[in-house]
Amino acid sequence: MSFDVRAGTWDASDRRQALAEAVAQAIRERFDLESSMHLLDIGAGTGLLTRRLLPFVGKMSAVDTSAGMLERLRENLADSDDRVTIYHTDIVGFDNPEPFDGIVSSMTIHHIEDTKMLFEKLHAMLKPGGFIALADLAPEDGTFHDHGNEGVFHFGFEEASLKKIAEDAGFESLAYRIVHTVDKGAKGTYDIFLLTATKPPLR
Ligand SMILES: C[S@@+](CC[C@H](N)C(=O)[O-])C[C@H]1O[C@@H](n2cnc3c(N)ncnc32)[C@H](O)[C@@H]1O
Known about the structure:
Helices cover 30% and strands 28% of the residues.
């Protein structure tokens, strides 16, 4: 089932709200967010993460391929949309108008096939000294998605290999930490990591 179709009921899930809350909290614990900052949220969807970080930064950009999810984001941001710029595009082809102070994401990078290319792009889109904070599934057995695995290119990410990809792309100060566990009852539990790293400052 496409994200366009699921957009209408996306925010009604307590499980998704709890995940986004845990990720936002972990990002705020790791980085000192400031009102001068411009963050990018990749695969922002309806804005579960964007909306939780917006009060702590100056502005945000939200990129997503789903028109339906972005329509919900626009509705959700009715009071503060002047601080959020929305781009309906694939992150792979996104041409950022200015470099970002930080790039965040929750539950999106397993939908992007070429992880190495993604990290090289993230690095290029950041200011020197900027950060990434990306949350996604730790390795899983392919059962996480209740609606099938169409558009799922990775069954989670293993710590060492993801860190190596980030390091090869030029990031430093890497950390991979489990910040949340999704409980799907009889199906089992699924750990969610937050990968954080910085682009070296100009020396
Ligand atoms: C699982 S949802 C997560 C949405 C939101 N971050 C959240 O936590 O609720 C993944 C989102 O990534 C978007 N997406 C998938 N592939 C993408 C790509 N290549 N570029 C931009 N967005 C993408 C989907 O449309 C969807 O809204």
